[in-house]
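Practice set, problem 2.
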Amino acid sequence: MRIRATGAALVGALALTALAVPAAQAEEGPADLRSSMFAANAPADDVIGDTQITGVTVNGGKDIVLGTTVPKTITVSVTATDPEGIEDAYVHLWHGTSMDDPDSVDGVLIPNEDVAGCTPVSATTSTCKLTFTIDPQFDLADNALAGTWKVTAAALGKDGDMVWKDAYKTHRVQRASKLTVNAGPEPVTKGKQLTVTGKLTRANWQTFTYAGYTGQPVKLQFRKAGTSTYTTVKTVNTNSTGNLSTTVTASVDGYWRWSFAGTSTTPAVSATGDYVDVK
């Protein structure tokens, strides 16, 4: 999150691109500034004149997936139209029941730039871009923040008209997942039992480690050597520590893997296939 210290909380319609805080707060810490940013100054849903937002794309339409340590920079594009053209646009993401009362000080993500980069599509329409750099160790200190976020979007026309939508759309922010596999013994005699183990883990934004994802259905899949398609053999649930284990009968050479379909808070992931030679 980038905190903007300007002279006033909201400077007319131009403040669509600057969530401002009083200058006296410039020396406050990030948490103090975050908690005061949306106290009472951001406008609610509003339209002045004929400016319209026609589309908002977050992270190219893909879920935002974050691990435990590495910051990620994403781009958000706002397409807007006004008979006189578009001057600027603004976006932020928030998690909670209302924009004025997000779930926590970490429940708001604001862009890096004070002004969007707008590219005209026509005399009346522009696509404006803003970037967000999200650091899981700074911006997401609560696992409860994984899931659906709201996207506030606003646009400013060159004639001073504006539109502001508290929750123009939603977008998912997820905890990164990992999945391992090991099949043995290797090699194995045809017709004998093969044991396939693995572990499903996901990022914990409170401890900054990966921990087992419990009670999740994971598919065991097999790909015969010389082919390119995996086939599901069975489904196994992870145990209390995220571990997986099952047995199958060995028949032909090929690759074994676990595949997780994902949830609203955690992305889908498949392990790299483990090759087993059947004698």
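Problem 2, part (b): a different protein.
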Amino acid sequence: MNIDSGQAVSSAQSSLRGKKRGKWLILTALIAMSATYIWADARLLARWIPIELFRDVPEVTQLHPVVKLNKDKLIEESKKIGIPIRITSDFRSSYEQDALYRQGREEEGAIVTHSKGGESYHNYGLAIDFVLQLQKGQVSWDIEYDGNGNGKSDWMEVVAIAKNLGFSWGGDWESFPDYPHLQMDFGYSIRDLQWGWRPPENDTQNTPITGRS
């Protein structure tokens, strides 16, 4: 075999090894991606199992720390642009939710919720309701009111601040819009919460999903 032939064979072998190495790299990457997907999907699938089957779930009695922090920021940021607001509801027990549900049905008053106890993000400390604070202690639910005189709806300015903080707004719901309602669900559905799953107290990931008050 002459020198040229030897170089050709060596070059062909190197090329073959390179192709095999490339295939292994691609295969390794695909396996890693698949493993990551399966792990992430398994975390979601796990929520199909009531966690109460494995351990006691502490009762929720107050706002989630991240929701409370952003509630305070919402009040502060709204005040900076001349829009004082009042939080009319935050954590609400299942007992209080049932009482609210009876309004307009078994008791006098207008229907204000379609959620029974345990069916509201309020019951898990993940929602707040707000209203515009006027002078002399009066409040307003007028979503077109422009109290700071900048030509914009005060209500929608507050909503914009809330969304920037990570809240989703009940006014975006197609059926039964709830204009005072703001929530942070962290990707947890009502069913997840009913089955005992809870967002970590230091969870800052806000992934709004369609929910109801």
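Answer key, part (b): Strands lie at 85-89, 127-133, 139-140, 168-169, 181-183. Residues 37-42, 206-213 have pLDDT under 50 and may be disordered.
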